[in-house]
Amino acid sequence: MNFESINIWCWLIPVLVGVLCAVFGYLLGQGGRTAIDHSAELKLLKDQNTKLEADLAACNQKIADKKTKEKASEIPFDKSAAKAALGRNIKRDDLKVVEGIGPKIEGLFHNYDIKTWKALSRASVSKCQNVLDSGGDRYKVHDPASWPMQAKMCYEGKWKELHKWQVEHKHGKL
Description:
Layout: H1 9-31, H2 39-73, H3 79-86, H4 103-111, H5 117-122, H6 125-134, H7 147-156, H8 159-168
């Protein structure tokens, strides 16, 4: 290719057009911009955020107070009284103390997040039946009608009454 025969204008015109387009594009872009003041919206959002954080802190405090109140109202577990009444060592919140509940049924209740006497005492009989049904046909022979009542006696520390009730009722059935 012979560069000597190429006219200088063949190079200069495209370069000039490109430079002019770049300058005009820049100027047009700058002219369309206007400064928008978002400070009022920002202040409003900051105020809303502050209010929501205060509400969250109040809710967390309310939950903490409720947990503290529940712990304060819990009935203490007297291991020696339980042993004296039932004749064997009892661990706190051992669901197997309830007549009719064995290790496998206790495991079913634990799967449903019923791990304490208090939780079992608050469960309905239908909820207990649902827990048993989740274990299959082998648990159909069990009758959970008295389990919440027995669990309540355990939770409240009424060991003599529980023992008397279990002796009077064959296999924990009402």
